[in-house]
Every structure is written in structure tokens, then in C-alpha cells.
Specification:
8% strand, 26 helices, alpha+beta, 4-stranded antiparallel sheet
Length: 757
């Protein structure tokens, strides 16, 4: 006989969030308004670099060269185009000399040199119609960008017989920052209305659809305020704003979908709003909390890396996860308390649902579809598990050929000014100006010793040319041009060889290839720590959720498998250059070193997000019925549509981010969109239920000491409110919060769990 439980005692958290819902919403409105004010202009205070290790040899060598040999570290270039005339024409030379002197007189500019001063072949184009003026803008990235903004309009354009374009690393980074902000605004304008439309399709009710969007907006605005504060303390990458928008909307939709759906389900069972909120927080709320912790841990692992590019994503990710979860667990219950049954207001399909017509039929069919899928998967579990795993591994095989590189101007669209300048230099000038290595020798040495060191450098395998030395006091700088590509494998070997040279004084090496070598070394050194943090904390959290030893291990393995398609696609598309035409990017033949780490942490966290949703519902049903296969089918039936809808919405947001004109942002958005869809549509729908079926009841095994630990410290939901025993269906609303049948399984009391344990 079914056990019908009485009203549940309201917990302290429920009383806290529902005691004064109007006051809570008013406070949220005030805090959001303050966040808008505090976060204004955050993009202008962000930086566009951060790929280098600040403690690496290449970094401090670059800083020393900037102080002692500013002309050896040019970061701004004037491309002088003489048209049909030669750059050696007297009129052209006179105008170029005037521009050089004018640039040298600008405040904040040092180390100015030009082809007309030095006659260096590397500063003159092969066709003789273009030449360079090189200079170094002093100061950190933000100050240097402000200087560039001031001087660039003074030099760009026609000047007598020449045409001037401004380029160089500072110009590339500055233009990249501007493009990212423009693209982010466009992505938000696209993602917000599309997300709202999809939510209306999921909920039917316009009121219910607005709730996740409101949670997302609160999370995004709050995170912008946090990032604005972080810029006062440390460098923050402008790329982090993209993650703020994507995760803010994506996680808000995930959490709010789960909570609103459970609330509507409890209301459909006849609960009053306060009891429905209590049950929702005790069940879906606990799941949201666990999900936020797992996502936050995955993102916080990036704090172990020294590059502020990665650390910035940790700052943004942790903030947006906490704010999204906080809004979902505090503001959303308060709103649901005030709305009550009105959460279903403005139902665009109300008429069909009331009549039990098309709308209700579609929802029932959807639930039955997931039930049939679960039955099919478990009847062919070994075949499904092996086949799905094989396909995922096959999709990931291209990643075995990954090549790591550094981000350069080719991330920008071909139409950007600084990109066009760098393209001209790369294609028309000999010796890759700005792409070579610099060896700094420091200490007392004689001219003969400097000459002998130059000969050793020139004799090193892979050296095409050596310039210098240029000496200042007891320091000397040598320009080294590597053979082949500036950041190719040969240039990276050359970095190691130059650092191993036997020299009479202390030497150090910097340059593009040296930065890459040091960045790869820093990531390799700290990657085990990051992975260890993710694995250990994930194992602990999933154990506390399920009480099983095997489910946490299964979760980590299957989540990692879900990322294989993303990594394979990144190499196949962005490294090999497939689809570069339709996607409008230029392949450099490698992947920026930090991006796979970033994509792993973000995608793994989102994968755990969906995994927690599914496992929590399976665990809830298993505790009620002690039916292993039935609980798997129940979990897939009741979360399959929810997870799929959340994944599609998050994928839409990530694709909007992926429309960026900057290649790294495009790769991040499209790659994570693919990972999210593969995880929801393949791993959660096929691999997880088939593997759990194959493992059988051993899925829930744990040794006696750990079972005792879980009973003491695990977070159990406790018994949920059951529907009336005679209720097989609730007209107009079901387990999905709309139309359809509501499960009327027998709910067992806590004494059943005690006996089973």
C-alpha cells in the first residue's frame, strides 16, 4: 500500500529564503543596480595578453631589455609605403626622417629607429617600396594602449609622398581588445532573445521563461562588478568577459530549469507554494549546490597556472558560478513564493494543454520517448557502451597530432589594420622583423669575449643570422634570427641550445619562441596539480552525493570521454585549417598553448553539471525503491529532456560567442558548444545508463567505513513529498511542470533505508 506522507517540516534554509520574499527581491534589485554601476567600463580596464609566465626567463629578460635596450624590443611599427617610388628616393627619405624625429619626440616613446637611420636590410621590403620605423612604447599594457591611442591618429594616413600604417604587438593587442568587446556585445544581443525564445518553448509559460533569464542577468552583472574590482589588484584578460556571458546565461538556465521544473512538479501534486519551495530546495536545490561546487572546482584549478590569461578565467568563472547558484537558491525561491500558481501564467500553449490536446500530448510523448530510450539502451547495454566509447575515442584521435604555438596577429580578421601591417611584414620583409630571438649577456666582459660569444651563437645549429652585439655598460644584446618559422620546432630547439651555451658571462634568451618554450614548461609543471585538484575534489563531492565509490570514478572517466570530440575537432578545424573559409579564420598550423587547458576546465565543469543533475535524480529514486534499473530509467526519463534543453540553450550561447572575429574566442565558443552537446546527447543519454546497467548493483558499492562516513557527512535529501495515492495523473501538469502523467510510484519511508543499510 502506498505510503502517503504528511506535510514536510520546513527547514531553516527554506524559512530564511521565503520569510520575506519581497524584501529579498528588493535587495537583489538594489544590489544589481549597484553592480551595474560598479562594473561599468570593466572592458576598458582589461588586458589582451597574459599568455606568458611572469616568472620565466623570457619574461624577466624582456623587461631587462626594455630598460637597457629599448630599441631591441620594438612594440610599435610604422609601415612607410612610398608607392611607385623607392624608399631611397630623397623626398621619401626626408619625409621618413621627419616622421621618425616626430615619433621620437612623443612622450612615452623610446628606442626609435628606422631603415633610413640604420640601413638594416630587415627593415626594408624586398620590392624596395616599403620600409619600417620601429619604436618602443613604455609602460604596462594599459598605459601603452593609451599612448598608442594618442599617437596613432597623428601618424596614420598620407604624409606627403608616403602612406603610413601603424602596427606592432601593441597595436595588435589593442585592436584585439576592441574587437572582442564589440563581438561580445553582438553575441549578447543575439543570445538573450534566442535564449528567451527557447525557454518559452521549454516552459510554455512566458513568466517561467523569464526567471532563468533574470538569474543569468544578475550573475553576469555581478561578475562584471567582481572583475572590475579584480582589475584594481591584478591583470585580468579581456577574454574572460566572454566566459562571464556564456556561463552566466548557461548556468542560470541550468539551475533555474531544474528548480522551476521541480517547483511546478510539486505544485502539480497539490503542495502549497511554501511546501513546494521547501521540497524543491531540499531536492533540486541540493543538486544545484553540488553542481555549482563541481563547476567551481574545475574552474578554480586554473589558479595554479602563472599565466594571467588562465587565472582570469578562474576569477570570472568562480564569481559567475557562485552568483548564478546564489541567485538560483535565494532569489528564485523568493520569486516562486510570490508567484505560486502564477508561475504558469502567460502560457502560450494553455488552450491545447487544458484540452489535453497537442501540447500535453507532446510532453507525454517526450517523457515516453526518454523511457523507451532508457529501455533500449539497457537492453543492449554492452553494445551501446562499447560502440559509444569507440566513436568518442575515434573523434578524439586528431588531438594526438596537436602542435602548440603562441597567439599572434593572425587571430584578428584579415581586414583589421594591425593584421594587415603584420601580414605585409611577414610576406614582404626578410628576416621576420620582431619574430627572432634576443640573447642578453650581463657581466664584465672584454670586446674579444663578446666577439667570441657572437661566433658561438652563429655556430649554433639553426641560426640563420646574428646581429650585434649592442653594448650598454656591462650588458650586451645579440639579435638571433632562427632558420625556418619563428616559433617552429627548430626555433624552440634553438632556444634550449642558446641557453646551454658556454659563455664567460651570464646569458638569458627571450623572443617569441622563448616565450612559447617557457609557457609550455610552466603548464607542464602545473598541469598535474590542476588535474589532481579536479579529480580529488570531484571524487569527494560525487561520493558525498551518491555514497558510492564507483560512481565518482565512472563520472570522471565518462566526463573525460565526453571531451574527446571537442579536442579532436579543435585540431582538425583550427590547427589543420578545415572549415577556415566558412568560419572565417586563418589557421596558423598550431593551437595556442593555454587554450586546451582552459577548454578542459570549462567543459569538464559543465559536463559534471549535467552529470550531477542525472545522478541526483537516479540516486533519489534508488533510495525510494531500491530498484537499480528502474532508477536509471526514472532518472533519464525525468532529466533527459531537461538536460537536452539546457545543453541546447548553452550551446546557442557558446555559438554566439563563437561568432567572434578573434580566432581564440571562436575556438573557445564553438569547441565548448560541441562538448556540451556531445555530453548531453551522447554521454548522458547513452553511455551513462549503459555503463550503470553493465556495472549492475555494484554501482552503489562502498566499503563499510565509507558507508558509515557517508551516513555521517553525506547530504541526503530525505523523503520527498508523495502525490496522493489515487492520483495517477494530474490534469494540465505533470512531472515536466506542464501536461502529462505524474509518476505515482510507491514512496518508502526512511525506515526502509535504515533496513537496507
Amino acid at each position: 500500500m502506498p505510503v502517503v506522507e504528511g506535510p514536510q517540516r520546513l527547514g531553516g534554509w527554506t524559512r530564511f529564503v521565503t520569510a520575506r520574499p519581497r524584501l529579498a527581491l528588493l535587495a537583489a534589485l538594489v544590489l544589481t543596480a549597484l553592480a551595474v554601476f560598479a562594473g561599468s567600463g570593466v572592458g576598458d580596464r582589461m588586458a589582451s595578453g597574459g599568455w606568458e609566465d611572469p616568472a620565466a626567463e623570457s619574461t624577466w629578460t624582456t623587461r631587462a631589455l626594455e630598460r637597457e635596450f629599448p630599441s631591441s624590443q620594438p612594440n610599435v611599427l610604422l609601415l612607410i609605403d612610398s608607392g611607385a617610388a623607392s624608399v631611397d628616393d630623397p623626398a621619401v627619405a626626408a619625409e621618413a626622417a621627419r616622421l621618425t624625429d616626430r615619433l621620437a619626440a612623443e612622450e612615452g616613446v623610446t628606442g626609435v629607429g628606422s631603415y633610413w637611420q640604420t640601413s638594416a636590410p630587415a627593415l626594408r621590403a624586398r620590392d624596395g617600396h616599403e620600409a619600417l620605423v620601429a619604436a618602443h612604447i613604455t609602460g604596462e599594457e594599459k598605459a601603452a594602449g593609451e599612448t598608442l591611442d594618442r599617437i596613432a591618429p597623428l601618424f596614420e594616413g598620407e604624409h606627403g609622398p608616403v602612406e603610413v600604417s601603424v602596427g606592432g604587438p601593441i597595436a595588435v593587442r589593442h585592436e584585439m581588445q576592441s574587437i572582442i568587446q564589440q563581438d561580445l556585445l553582438r553575441a549578447e544581443l543575439f543570445a538573450l532573445p534566442v535564449t528567451l525564445a527557447l525557454l518559452v518553448m521549454v516552459f510554455g509559460s512566458a513568466v517561467a521563461a523569464l526567471l532563468p533569464l533574470a538569474v543569468g542577468i544578475v550573475a553576469i552583472l555581478g561578475t562584471n562588478a567582481v572583475l572590475r574590482g579584480m582589475t584594481e589588484l591584478t591583470d585580468v584578460s579581456v577574454f574572460a568577459q566572454n566566459l562571464t556571458t556564456a556561463l552566466g546565461l548557461g548556468l542560470a538556465v541550468d539551475y533555474a530549469l531544474f528548480i522551476v521544473r521541480r517547483f511546478r512538479e510539486e505544485m502539480a501534486a497539490g503542495a502549497d507554494p511554501r511546501s513546494a519551495v521547501g521540497t524543491t530546495l531540499r531536492t533540486a536545490g541540493r543538486t544545484v549546490l553540488f553542481s555549482a561546487l563541481t563547476v567551481g572546482v574545475s574552474l578554480s584549478a586554473m589558479l595554479v597556472f602563472p599565466q594571467y590569461f588562465l587565472r582570469s578565467f578562474a576569477y570570472a568563472g568562480i564569481a559567475v558560478v557562485l552568483l548564478a547558484a546564489g541567485a538560483a537558491l535565494i532569489l528564485l525561491p523568493a520569486a516562486l513564493m510570490l508567484l505560486g500558481p502564477r508561475v504558469n501564467a502567460l502560457d502560450l500553449r494553455r488552450a491545447s494543454v487544458r484540452r489535453g490536446g497537442v501540447g500535453a500530448a507532446q510532453r507525454v510523448t517526450a517523457g515516453q520517448g526518454w523511457a523507451r530510450l532508457a529501455d533500449l539502451v539497457m537492453r543492449r547495454a554492452p553494445v551501446v557502451a562499447v560502440a559509444t566509447t569507440a566513436v568518442l575515442i575515434l573523434l578524439g584521435l586528431p588531438f594526438l597530432g596537436v602542435k602548440f604555438g603562441t597567439a599572434d596577429d593572425r587571430q584578428l580578421p584579415e581586414s583589421s589594420t594591425s593584421r594587415m601591417v603584420q601580414d605585409h611584414i611577414r610576406e614582404e620583409f626578410p628576416g621576420s622583423p620582431g619574430g627572432g630571438l634576443t640573447l642578453l649577456a650581463r657581466g664584465p666582459a672584454t670586446p674579444a669575449q663578446y666577439t667570441a660569444l657572437r661566433e658561438r651563437i652563429a655556430a649554433t645549429e639553426g641560426v640563420a643570422r646574428v646581429d650585434g652585439p649592442v653594448t650598454v655598460g656591462e650588458s650586451a644584446a645579440y639579435g638571433v634570427v632562427p632558420e625556418g618559422e619563428a616559433v617552429g620546432s627548430g626555433a624552440q630547439r634553438l632556444v634550449h641550445d642558446l641557453r646551454a651555451l658556454d659563455a664567460p658571462v651570464e646569458t638569458s634568451v627571450t623572443g617569441t619562441a622563448a616565450v612559447l618554450v617557457d609557457s609550455k614548461g610552466a603548464i607542464a609543471d602545473r598541469l598535474p596539480w590542476a588535474v589532481g585538484i579536479i579529480v580529488v575534489v570531484t571524487l569527494l563531492l560525487v561520493f558525498l552525493l551518491t555514497g558510492s565509490v564507483l560512481i565518482p570514478v565512472q563520472a570522471i572517466v565518462l566526463n573525460t570521454l565526453s571531451l574527446t570530440a571537442m579536442f579532436g575537432a579543435v585540431v582538425w578545424v583550427f590547427q589543420a585549417g578545415h572549415l577556415s573559409g566558412p568560419l572565417s579564420f586563418t589557421s596558423t598550423g598550431d593551437i595556442e598553448t593555454t587554450l586546451p587547458v582552459l577548454m578542459f576546465c570549462v567543459a569538464f565543469g559543465l559536463s559534471m553539471d549535467y552529470g550531477v543533475f542525472l545522478l541526483s535524480r537516479i540516486k533519489e529514486e534508488h533510495d525510494r525503491t531500491d530498484d537499480h534499473e528502474g532508477s536509471i530509467a526514472f532518472g533519464l526519463r525525468h532529466t533527459g529532456g531537461l538536460i537536452s534543453a539546457a545543453a541546447v540553450i548553452l550551446a546557442v550561447v557558446m555559438v554566439a560567442i563563437g561568432t567572434s572575429r578573434v580566432t581564440n574566442t571562436k575556438m573557445l565558443g564553438l569547441g565548448i558548444a560541441l562538448a556540451v552537446l556531445m555530453d548531453a546527447m551522447v554521454v548522458r543519454s547513452l553511455l551513462v545508463p549503459s555503463v550503470m546497467k553493465v556495472m549492475g548493483r555494484a554501482t552503489w558499492w562502498a566499503p563499510a567505513p565509507l558507508r558509515a562516513l557517508h551516513r555521517r557527512f553525506g547530504l541526503d535529501e530525505g523523503p520527498a513529498t508523495a502525490p496522493p495515492a489515487h492520483t495517477a495523473s494530474v490534469p494540465g501538469q505533470g512531472a515536466d511542470g506542464r501536461g502529462g502523467l505524474r509518476d505515482a510510484r510507491v514512496r518508502r519511508g526512511p525506515e526502509h533505508l535504515d533496513r537496507r543499510r
